[in-house]
Design goal:
Layout (H helix, E strand, L loop, with lengths): L1 E9 L3 H19 L2 E7 L3 H7 L5 H9 L2 E6 L16 H9 L4 E7 L12 H4 L4 E7 L9 E6 L2 E6 L5 H16 L4 E6 L5 H14 L6 E6 H10 L6 E4 L1 H14 L7 E5 L5 E5 L16 H13 L4 H16 L2 E2 L9 E2 L2 H11 L1
Parallel strand pairs: 1-2, 1-3, 3-12, 5-10, 8-9, 8-10, 13-14
Antiparallel strand pairs: 4-5, 4-11, 6-7, 11-12
Helix pairs in contact: 1-10, 1-12, 6-7, 8-9, 10-11, 11-12
The chain binds 3-isopropylmalic acid and magnesium ion.
Amino acid sequence: MKYNIALIHGDGIGPEVVNEAVNVLDTVAKKFGHEFCYTPLLAGGCAIDAKGECLPQETIDACKKADAVLLGAVGGWKWDTLPGDKRPERALLGLRKELGLFANIRPALLFDALAEACPLKPEIVEGGLDIVVVRELTGGIYFGERGTKETPMGLAAYDVEQYAEEEVRRIAVTAFDMAMKRNKKVTSVDKANVLDSSRLWRRVVTEVAKDYPEVTLEHLYIDNAAMQLVRNPKQFDVIVTGNIFGDILSDEASMITGSIGMLPSASLAAGNFGMYEPVHGSAPDIAGQDKANPLATILSAAMMLRYTFGLSKEADAIENAVKAVLAKGYRTPDIYTEGTTLVGTKEAGRLVCAEI
Ligand code: IPM
Ligand code: MG
């Protein structure tokens, strides 16, 4: 089969890690008899420099024509002083909205070989951790009405948190479908003791649950959920939540695996279209030095094969190759510990290809 992939290398370490993911995809293509065609596109700081805007219309159009998007990272010091609506990060929000990517899937997986890197006590994570955060990505306070106005107490600024029933329903369906393929538990996170938007969220999620009698549904308030994640993370299977709570909880969940540099993500639209990117940022301090860990982007490519192209054997091949490289003791600087073998970005990518 032939697949068209839009490539957004972005800024900082983005280009290096995307290059390794492309090498891995090409290795998969050869082995399994597929053809991947790539369209490189500009977004983020590099697009500001080249085109004067972080998300050129031609990038949006080309992404819409592709079967899936693979993105490295955007942002960097150079653009840090630009006003909020001109910053490279706006490109991410624009892509999410324009491409209808309402479901953000962020797995937090503790790799056996990296268990030592977990900051929690060993007995808390014994037996491993495998959590998926399903974050609503195109609604809530990120996209609600906002503004700044004069008041007797000086300027006041506001951002509105709003969710429509249909927005909640479709993300809940995504979460329950995912739970059916996993351990059949969904934890919905909200602030229903205070917020109207959360009360609606909770009601709709509870309605959707009726279609999934095999799945256990639990509701937690966001403050309690943040606490439970470090107290007893093994209680979680699928966590479903709104945009801003999901932003925060997915960082927390990734940190407790000790491997934030290792984690992939998928942002999915209705149908099978998706944008895939590592959870980590553009790390400008190590850009261009062959020090970045390409595994999160490589694993994002695996998610693309699994979710958008329906190629689960091929996705398994990549994930197993990554596990094998770790088991053999190869480590990029971010996950290096004494007694393991230090490798650079390119070598890490080559080792994964060799395992495939
Ligand atoms: C993320 C990031 C983004 C977000 C920023 C960069 C806009 O933190 O993908 O989690 O808040 O969604
Ligand atoms: Mg975030």
